[in-house]
Design goal:
This is Potassium channel domain-containing protein. By secondary structure, this protein is mainly alpha-helical. The protein folds into 2 domains: 90 residues, no CATH class; 180 residues, Helix Hairpins (Orthogonal Bundle), CATH 1.10.287. Strands 3-2-1-4 form a 4-stranded antiparallel sheet, with no helix packed on it. Strand 2 and strand 3 form a beta hairpin.
């Protein structure tokens, strides 16, 4: 009995260790993510902190000189700051007419969140929360669906290109699709950077930075398109181009993310299947075969005696361990080793020895 409990504990322990493989992966991802955050914080600190201090000192010097030159009180200067900051969004024109509102709704649905314009009234804030609760899931599903269609279209193009090039394998692999969507994303970002550099007057690097921050939905808000020269009202074509860039670019990024999610889900499913198979193999390899007699005896699947090694019977020379129910008056291929072909183990049937079939 103690030996049976011991083997059962070993099986349970090995099964739990096998099933904890996914937990180990999750923990490893958490540790790697926090390590990555620490590394990023250290790099940003070394790159930005010194420049931030110099810029702050420079702005404080300008403030003091301005107050001294025009004899402005600190309260008046603070009021001027508020007026300048609050007036900045209006440089693009009315923010809450249809064009500006449509641009704001797109930014909310895409979870970019520039922060260039925000609702002020209680009704606007309440509607913004309700609108986001419905619009964000809808947008995610839409971008995901468009991403799947783009992946399907890319797979067709890749297959035809491989057939044209007479490749040995014409199927589009995940790596092919990831390369295709990566190239398309790069084309969109570089093209968009050139367009925004022309219309906004930014440098190409700043425009590239804006496109990347937008399509990754980071949306810092330090660079926002359509905020100069009454662009929302005077440049409808540019407004439409900006909206198309955001929507189509997010769809392409969603296609890349879709491939990564599918790959991760495939890895998770493979690990779960492998763990389940390992658990079944462990259970099958240690499943005991028991005989119900006056002295209970247990064997594992390899025929190893687990307990009561003093078991003896007068039929030991002829009895066999068999998973069938052939111990009777019929002949069985498993019992061909019997010396007498006319032997019938009726005495065994008459005894109280019975066999339990092992379940694997």
């Amino acid at each position: 009995m103690l030996i049976d409990s011991y083997f059962n504990c070993i099986i349970e322990f090995l099964t739990q260790c096998s099933m904890k493989r996914q937990n180990v992966r999750t923990l490893s991802l958490v540790v790697c993510t926090f390590t990555y955050l620490l590394i990023g914080a250290a790099v940003f600190d070394s790159l930005e902190s010194e420049f931030e201090a110099k810029r702050y000192d420079f702005l404080q010097t300008l403030k003091k000189n301005f107050i001294k030159k025009y004899n402005v009180s600190s309260e008046d200067f603070r009021m001027m700051e508020i007026v300048i900051i609050e007036n900045k969004p209006h440089k693009a024109g009315p923010q809450w007419k249809f064009a500006g509102a449509f641009y704001f709704a797109t930014v909310v649905l895409a979870m970019i969140g520039y922060g260039h314009s925000t609702p002020v009234t209680i009704g606007g804030k309440a509607f913004c929360m309700a609108y986001a609760m419905v619009g964000i899931p809808l947008g995610l599903v839409m971008f995901q669906s468009i991403g799947e269609r783009l992946n399907k279209f890319a797979s067709v193009i890749i297959r035809r290109a491989k057939r044209y090039l007479q490749c040995a394998h014409t199927e589009a692999t995940e790596m092919n699709l990831m390369l295709a969507t990566g190239m398309l994303s790069s084309i969109i970002i570089t093209t968009g950077a050139a367009v925004f550099s022309r219309y906004e007057g930014w440098s190409y690097f700043d425009s590239f930075y804006y496109c990347f921050v937008t399509l990754t939905t980071i949306g810092f808000g330090d660079y926002v398109a359509l905020q100069n020269d009454q662009a929302l009202t005077n440049k409808p074509g540019y407004v439409a181009l900006s909206l198309v860039f955001i929507l189509f670019g997010l769809a392409v990024v969603a296609a890349s993310i879709n491939l990564l999610v599918l790959r991760f889900m495939t890895m998770q499913a493979e690990d779960a299947k492998r763990d389940e198979q390992d658990a079944q193999n462990l259970a099958a390899a240690n499943q005991p075969v028991t005989f119900d007699t006056e002295h209970s005896t247990s064997y594992n699947m390899q025929g190893k005696l687990l307990s009561n090694s003093n078991y003896t019977n007068e039929f030991d020379e002829t009895a066999s361990i068999c998973s069938c129910t052939c111990l009777g008056g019929t002949r069985c291929m498993n019992h061909e080793p019997f010396a007498d072909p006319d032997f019938r183990p009726t005495d065994i049937i008459a005894s109280n020895l019975s066999l339990k079939r092992a379940s694997v």
